[in-house]
């Protein structure tokens, strides 16, 4: 297949419009054992990217299969794959130091409410996003001038805060003296990734997608089709395959060649807070340099979880002693409770930034982050029949609907449905 590195805006919009019109809902079907084993396109990986691709693709194709297991009930003993959406809250915002990531986010967030309406599943909470930094950190995550430029380019309203205004608006948060901040109040906040996946799948199924709750163990091009072997021993065939298997893409060895990716072992801390601690502040990325040690990370406001209790979620920029490689290492980390020394860092950081917080209990949850060599998702055709959508780089969840739309357009037309150059998303191999 001849790869197109760039398509003009007009052609990109033309292809995108071909995906947009809704067709009459076909008979919905969700299968664990399936009556049909032949499909036009099979999407392997039923997480954020794959489920979004299924929703977009099933608007224009009658033969879509989405293949991926359910979330395991007992993660501590689960021996299969893990996905990245096993979470209740994930930060979302448009403003970013990088224009490509800002564009992906803006286009995705613009469709959140429509997805909620079509699925009757609410997952987005528009509470705003704030980034706070004392400056001089040497990381583009906290590049305020670049972030302001992207906000201007994408016509996103932001508000600048100096140290005094931060103290006035959020007196209970203890940021480094002299910090500055930017606030995006509209089209930002947090979303529930579990519910977003559920919403995407609900719409895709209503549009005719077959959902197969299986793990895939092998894909093989055989003549005019791709043979897909599933964990239960059966086979599925498809004309084309989109692989969206996240951190497990190399570990499962589904592709002929390893992608150039790095898997980071991240850790989330979820702290239960007393009911009276229902303070309101935006989803926040912050850097702090006046504590016991420098820290930068995520601070979410108190959120009510499924058990009816309120929790504050925190996460930092430390990702374990070394990248993870191989199926066994990924599983071991995903079943673990992380490192005790890291727990100490997270607990101390939360006390330093929110000293008045009354913490009732604390849980630690492992997370896998897939970084690509380009720092953008790989959305590419590897040959005429197999495409990929892999690599969130710590920013992909909020932008998953647009990433899925690009992958759907690519696998359906073998063209490129965006004004963003395809070369930005080209796969790189190890």
From TrEMBL:
Superkingdom: Bacteria
Molecular function per GO: flavin adenine dinucleotide binding; sarcosine oxidase activity
Cofactor: FAD
Signal peptide limits: 1-27
Span of domain FAD dependent oxidoreductase: 40-408
Alphabetized UniProt keyword annotations: FAD, Flavoprotein, Oxidoreductase, Signal
Protein name: Putative N-methyl-L-tryptophan oxidase
């Amino acid at each position: 297949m001849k790869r197109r590195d760039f398509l003009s805006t007009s052609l990109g919009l033309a292809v995108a419009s071909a995906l947009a019109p809704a067709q009459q809902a076909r008979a919905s079907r969700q299968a664990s054992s399936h009556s049909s084993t032949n499909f036009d396109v099979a999407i392997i990986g039923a997480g954020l990217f794959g489920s979004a691709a299924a929703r977009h693709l099933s608007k224009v194709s009658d033969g879509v299969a989405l293949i991926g297991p359910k979330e395991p009930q007992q993660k501590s003993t689960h021996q299969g794959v893990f996905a990245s959406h096993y979470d209740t809250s994930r930060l979302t915002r448009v403003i970013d130091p990088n224009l490509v990531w800002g564009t992906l986010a803006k286009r995705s967030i613009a469709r959140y409410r429509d997805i909620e309406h079509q699925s009757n599943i609410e997952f987005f909470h528009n509470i705003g996003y704030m980034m706070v930094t004392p400056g001089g950190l040497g990381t583009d995550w906290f590049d305020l001038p670049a972030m302001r430029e992207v906000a201007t380019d994408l016509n996103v309203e932001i508000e600048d805060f100096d140290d005094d205004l931060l103290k006035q608006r959020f007196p209970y948060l203890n940021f480094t003296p002299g910090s500055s901040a930017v606030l995006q109040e509209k089209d930002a906040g947090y979303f529930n990734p579990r519910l977003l996946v559920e919403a995407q799948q609900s719409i895709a199924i209503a549009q005719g997608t077959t959902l197969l709750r299986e793990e895939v163990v092998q894909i093989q091009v055989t003549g005019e089709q791709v043979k897909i072997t599933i964990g239960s021993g059966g086979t599925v065939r498809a004309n084309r395959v989109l692989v969206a298997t996240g951190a497990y893409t190399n570990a499962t060895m589904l592709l002929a060649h390893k992608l150039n990716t790095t898997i980071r072992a991240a850790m989330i801390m979820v702290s239960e807070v007393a009911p009276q601690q229902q303070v309101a502040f935006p989803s926040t990325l912050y850097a702090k340099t006046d504590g016991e040690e420098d820290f930068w990370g995520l601070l979410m406001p108190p959120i009510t979880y499924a058990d009816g209790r309120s929790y504050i979620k925190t996460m930092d920029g430390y990702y374990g002693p070394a990248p993870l490689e191989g199926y066994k290492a990924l599983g071991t980390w995903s079943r673990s409770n992380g490192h005790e020394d890291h727990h100490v860092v997270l607990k101390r950081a939360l006390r330093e930034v929110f000293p008045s917080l009354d913490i009732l209990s604390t849980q630690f949850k492992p997370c896998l982050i897939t970084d690509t060599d380009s720092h953008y998702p790989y959305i590419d055709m590897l040959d005429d029949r197999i495409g990929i959508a892999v690599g969130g780089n710590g920013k992909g969840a909020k932008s998953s609907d647009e990433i899925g739309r690009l992958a759907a357009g690519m696998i359906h037309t073998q063209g490129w449905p965006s004004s963003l150059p395809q070369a930005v998303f080209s796969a790189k191999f190890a």
